[in-house]
Write a structure and sequence with these properties.
Pfam families: Flavodoxin_2 (PF02525)
CATH architecture of the largest domain: 3-Layer(aba) Sandwich
Protein name: Putative NADPH-quinone reductase (Modulator of drug activity B)
Helix content: 40-55%
Number of domains: 2
Organism: Ignavigranum ruoffiae
GO molecular function: electron transfer activity; FMN binding; NAD(P)H dehydrogenase (quinone) activity
Structural class: alpha/beta
Shape: globular
CATH class of the largest domain: Alpha Beta
Number of strands: 6
Keywords: Oxidoreductase
């Protein structure tokens, strides 16, 4: 599945969080990134026809952005306003978007556990992201679960490694919190290492296959442990 990640940030180069995700995605996947901020600095506008031609080449569209006061940065709103200027272009956009998958990667400097209705931010991330769900519904797209990253700078190396694989899993499958999807990502990355000669084919192929079979057999238990380990405290 061809995936386009639209980055809604005015200065991606200055964002440690976006650079972490961008470098991860570029190194470990074949997804395409579109930096709205850099593009707008050059073109000073978003042309509807150009954006239609861009999106029609992909099967999954993911919007990636930092929360600014509970909203996406203005550059992403500008893209929506200019790429979809009026209702008269519905017939032009609908055949391009219908049936595609749409997801969101949202970054926050706040703990994810703070997004609750009874305390903290007094709103859930699902509520804050509801316009994207409505947009996907309007265009008859499949709306994927959101992928959220909280306080990236505070994560230790082990947590960052886990985030890398979780992020890659989301980009490649659109799934969140699924150990089965994660194990496929890990095995895929191991396969790439084999193909690139980092792992000896003859000596390690059987061990890799055995490792895969063990993961499959223990998937239910490992998925539960994975879920518990990932809960915010």
């Amino acid at each position: 599945m061809r995936t386009l990640v639209i980055i809604g940030h005015p200065e991606v180069d200055d964002s440690q969080s976006h650079q972490f995700l961008l470098q991860t995605g570029q190194a470990m996947t074949d997804v395409t990134y579109f930096d709205l901020g850099a593009y707008y600095q050059e073109q000073q506008k978003f042309d509807p026809e150009i954006e239609r031609n861009r999106l029609k080449e992909f099967d999954r569209i993911i919007f990636q952005f930092q929360l600014y006061w509970y909203q996406a940065p203005a550059i992403l709103k500008a893209w929506f306003d200019q790429a979809f200027p009026n209702a008269y272009q519905i017939d032009l956009w609908r055949p391009i978007l219908v049936g595609k998958e749409m997801g969101t990667v949202v970054l926050s400097g706040t703990k994810l556990s703070a997004y609750r209705t009874d305390s903290g931010q007094r709103a859930t991330l699902s509520e804050l992201l509801s316009p994207y769900r409505a947009f996907a519904h309007y265009w008859q797209m499949t709306y994927l679960p959101y992928f959220a990253v909280g306080q990236l700078a505070a994560k230790n190396p082990t947590q960052q490694w886990r985030l890398m694989f979780d992020y890659v899993t989301y980009l490649e499958t659109g799934r969140v919190g699924s150990f089965r999807a994660l194990q496929q990502t890990i095995l895929s990355q191991l396969g790439k290492l084999i193909d690139q000669g980092f792992i000896e084919q003859e000596t390690d192929a059987l061990e890799l296959d055995l490792f895969y079979q063990q993961l499959v057999q223990q998937a239910d238990l490992l998925e539960e442990l994975y879920r518990l380990e990932g809960e915010e405290v």
